[in-house]
Write a structure and sequence with these properties.
The protein is an all-alpha fold. The chain has seven helices and no strands.
């Protein structure tokens, strides 16, 4: 039997982890914030506008073009308005937290595969500082 077989211990525990995440009250709250944002056309449009304008300014700046103070002020005002929108702010917070959860779980799984054991707190701390397996400096 392989690790990916439907009845393997690894797949059973993977489904248990997924169930624990899906059943968590805080996760449900984060999902609701995302769904609320997706159903709010005004918040979505505001987000898209700020995101696109930020990309435009970023590309302009990296092309060597100096940004005009009015461009910066207008962008900052739009960003501030976005952050003061309760639905959009909750979405952005939820998005950050969900991405952090995904990265943390991924880090543990990746380090387990690399180390051949469950990573310790010290292993995780070293990887965050760019240590052996985090920075790739030891051939991991």
């Amino acid at each position: 039997m392989t690790l990916l077989a439907e009845t393997s211990a690894v797949m059973t525990k993977t489904r248990e982890l997924c169930a624990a995440i899906a059943d968590d009250a805080h996760f449900t709250k984060l999902q609701q914030a995302v769904e609320r944002f997706l159903s709010d056309d005004g918040a979505r449009l505001m987000y898209q506008t700020v995101h696109q304008r930020g990309e435009e300014l970023h590309h302009k700046q990296h092309s060597g073009v100096k940004l005009a103070p009015t461009e910066i002020r207008e962008f900052e005002a739009a960003r501030d308005a976005l952050m003061s929108n309760e639905v959009a702010a909750a979405f952005l917070d939820a998005q950050d937290e969900l991405e952090s959860l995904q990265k943390t779980i991924g880090k543990y799984v990746n380090m387990t595969l690399e180390l051949g054991r469950v990573p310790t707190e010290q292993d995780i701390a070293e990887s965050e500082k760019g240590g052996c397996c985090g920075g790739g400096g030891c051939g991991c």
